[in-house]
Amino acid sequence: MDPRPCAACAKPLRPRAQRPDQIFCPAPECQRERKRRWQQERRKRDPDYRENEARGARQWRERHPEYWRRYREANVGYRERNRALQAQRDRNCARDRLANGDVSTTDPPIASGLYRLSLVGGGDIANGDVWVAEIRSISDP
């Protein structure tokens, strides 16, 4: 069979006779890339596979609750890089469009009464659980 480029490293690959459709060479890095692409495709197409992976990750986190805290303490470079990247993301984002459900800017608080709540937007809000709404009084308390 004629050599072809490996789909990962582009080095010449001579497919095995048993696998004429082989596109990745046997190098460990290329096999990791083959598996990564297979998993990525599987996650896109198979909701059960996606849910099983999510469940496994959740169970692992429950068994190792201190892992990320210890990792960040032990890897200062990771922590600093993450802070720098987050600062860059914050600068790139329109800060007035971010929603924080813990903050109320109403001054004074809305009086009790009957109100009509109408959705006026929300597609550009960072948190998908938040609506931008207009509140109009229907009756006074």
Describe this protein's structure.
The chain has 141 residues and is α+β, with helices and mostly antiparallel strands. The chain contains four helices and four strands; from the N terminus they run ββααααββ. The strands form two sheets. Strands 1-2 form a two-stranded antiparallel ribbon. A two-stranded antiparallel sheet has the order 3-4.
Describe the global form: elongated
Unreliable residue stretches: none
- The main sheet orders its strands as 1-2
Question: Beta-strand level of the residues, as a percent range?
Answer: 5-15%
Topology, number of strands? 4
In round numbers, the mean pLDDT is: 83
Largest sheet: 2 strands, antiparallel
* SS summary, helix count: 4
> Roughly how many Å apart are the termini?
85 Å
Gyration radius, in Å: 26 Å
Q: SSE order, as H and E?
A: EEHHHHEE
Can you tell me the number of structural domains? 2
As a percent range, the share of helical residues equals 40-55%
- How would you classify the helix and strand content by structural class? alpha+beta
Please name the defining characteristics of this protein.
2 domains; 141 residues; 43% helix
Give the gist of this structure:
The chain has helices spanning 28-45, 47-63, 67-74, 76-92, and strands at 4-5, 12-13, 114-121, 132-139. With 141 residues, it is α+β, with helices and mostly antiparallel strands.
